[in-house]
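ok, trying the design again with the full structure, not the truncated one.
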């Protein structure tokens, strides 16, 4: 399947396709996709919540019980908001983009 309006060859030199655009670190949509989804979600949350922010910093976790994600210095989540589950109750969201057709 071809994406209209994009070059046939990626900046990395490989042929462009939906699959390649989702996984290419050189010219793909990895960061753009995540930031775009995060910002859109934050905008929607801003309609119903208070104190919506993107990229809030987290307290570093030193426990060996942490299972995944960034837990050290500089770890960040996607969105924080207050009032979604209850008045003044804070909620944090991690935005993830996945490629359902990936080999792994």
């Amino acid at each position: 399947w071809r994406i209209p309006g994009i070059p046939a060859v990626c900046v990395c030199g490989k042929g462009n396709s939906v699959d390649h655009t989702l996984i290419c670190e050189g010219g793909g949509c990895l960061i753009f996709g995540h930031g775009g989804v995060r910002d859109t979600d934050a905008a929607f949350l801003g309609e119903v919540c208070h104190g919506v922010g993107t990229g809030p910093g987290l307290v570093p976790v030193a426990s060996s019980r942490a299972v995944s994600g960034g837990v050290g210095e500089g770890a960040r989540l996607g969105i924080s908001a207050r009032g979604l589950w209850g008045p003044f109750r804070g909620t944090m969201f991690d935005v993830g983009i996945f490629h359902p057709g990936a080999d792994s």
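Keeping the full-length input from now on. The mean pLDDT is 77.
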